[in-house]
Amino acid sequence: MTTPTPIPELDDCALACATRLRDASEVLLVSHIDADGLTSAAITARALERAGIPFETAFENQLDAEAIATIAATGHDTVLFTDFGSGQLDIIAEYDDAFTPVIADHHQPANAETEYHLNPLLVGIDGASELSGAGASYTLARALETGDTDNRDLASLAVVGAVGDMQATDGELTGANRAIVEEGVEAGVLDEQPDLALYGRQTRPLPKLLEYSNAVYIPGITNDQRGSVELLSGLAIDLKRNGEWRTWVDLSGEERQTVVSALVECALKRGVGPDSIEDLVATTYTLVAEPIGTELRDASEFSTLLNATARYDRADVGLAVCLGNRESALDRARTLLETHRRNISDGLQLMKTEGVTTENHVQWFDAGTQIRETIVGIVAGMALGAENVDRDRPIVAFAEKSETETKVSARGSHALVDRGLDLSVVMQRAGSAVGGDGGGHDVAAGATIPTGQQAAFIDRADRIVGEQLDG
User: Fold this and answer.
1) Which residues of 282-301 are buried (b: 16+ CB within 10 A; e: fewer)?
2) What confidence tens digit (pLDDT) does each residue in 363-396 have?
3) Rounded (5°) CA angle 301-302-308
4) pLDDT at 7 over 60
5) What region holds the DHHA1 domain (predicted)?
6) Beta-carbon neighbour count of residue 302 at 10 Å?
7) What are the Cα distances from residue 407, in Å, to 105, 161, 307, 396?
8) Whole-structure pTM value
């Protein structure tokens, strides 16, 4: 390693992992399927390629005992796990005679040890808000550099992964993530600026930008097409070009300020508090090499595009986009994104129609087979900012995984975490109590439980959350 990694606390571990990978005859790279997992895979794949290390790539939605057994049967002497593996160390350890694991992850480790384990939690860095799986993978990529390689260009993918993993606390990336942002800016692949904190600045027509954003709920604007159009139409700026609505990035700085001023005035008149109005502005991360007006230029939109691939069984498409395929893979990803958006919209409408059930400390809904289990967590996270959903209670969502298993996804807020919420513990303890298993992060976690155990799970989860928030 010619230069230190951006996370000095992880230098020694990253170097040890990199050395083991260089000594391998061939590496099997296995990663998770969300945006953080896909960017983790892309970062390590590119770094392995540049280091001249032969590898194959595979993806798993859930790294359970069956998946690990299948991995062991491939015959690879070294397996690199990215964005998962820490929480499954106890199972992985059962195959120590089959392969050597190298892990770059940020989830809570199981009660087991392994030699090559790169995880921020092991050095006192918060894996839920300060370093994502992609960040851990980027740290490993920096350790894999040789004298003639520079992997700092991969910082942009690490930022996409962190943003996709909801690590932008209070509107910006902090902690160890901050060091990666700085490297990306220095390398000329990233730009960071304060801007309107609404999703879709690159691609959404202006009315949709206001209508669909859940950063701040503004009565008469959020989820209100007519209200959004009326607000914009009353402004003294040209909002259309050749008969088509312009997007946020089409506007000049002066035009953007006009929209922001009108939005703030509207919010104040409709009772939105000053603290919430402050949330309308956040730090935005731009991938400067990508074309203006595309999903790939904005870290948040890029992460959504990636979620739309692997969560519909096309992780190969997401990986190809991350690695630079701007033709067939990107076209396919955009088609999947349209499907993803429709399914998310349908899921939110389902939740709005059927409502949530409120317990003492949590709220929940059971989607059954009506929401795909790979996206029910996304729906739950978006629902937490919707009308008639309490922001001061974590939300739990169920979706059928199979005839015998149910997927559980839980989402909270950083404000709740500050009060003591740890959904990783909630999912692990409540899941285990009903014969399942779970884990994740303090602000977002999941579990798999036997079908029919939803009521017992909620009863246990409600009590645990109560203990955390009232303790």
Assistant:
1) bbbbbbeebeeebbbbbbbb
2) 999 999 999 999 999 999 988 867 778 989 999 9
3) 90
4) yes
5) 373-466
6) 28
7) 22, 23, 17, 10
8) 0.89
Distances (CA, A) of 424 to 176, 216, 428, 471: 21, 26, 6, 17
What value does the mean pLDDT take over residues 297-325? 95
Domains identified in the chain and CATH numbers = 8-190 (3.90.1640.30), 198-284 (no CATH), 355-470 (3.10.310.40)
Question: For residue 120, what are the CA distances in angstroms to 88, 177, 440?
Answer: 16, 11, 14
Question: What is the C-alpha to C-alpha distance for residues 46 and 85, in angstroms, rounded to an integer?
Answer: 20
pLDDT by residue (tens digit) across 142-159? Answer: 999 988 899 999 999 999
Reference 302, options 280, 333, 275; nearest CA is 333
Instruction: Name the token pair of 368.
Output: 């059954």
SS3 state at 114 = coil
113-127, 133-147, 342-356, range with the lowest pLDDT: 342-356
DSSP code string of 196-255: E--TTTTTSBHHHHHHH--SS--TTTTT-HHHHHHHHHTSSS--EETTEEPBGGGS-HHH
Q: Locate 105 and state its tokens.
A: 């992850």
Name the band, by pLDDT with cuts 50, 70 and 90, for residue 1: very low
Strands 240-241, 244-245: pairing kind: antiparallel
Please state, as a whole number, how many other Cβ atoms lie within 10 Å of the Cβ of residue 57: 18
Residues 277 and 285: their CA atoms lie apart, in Å, by: 21
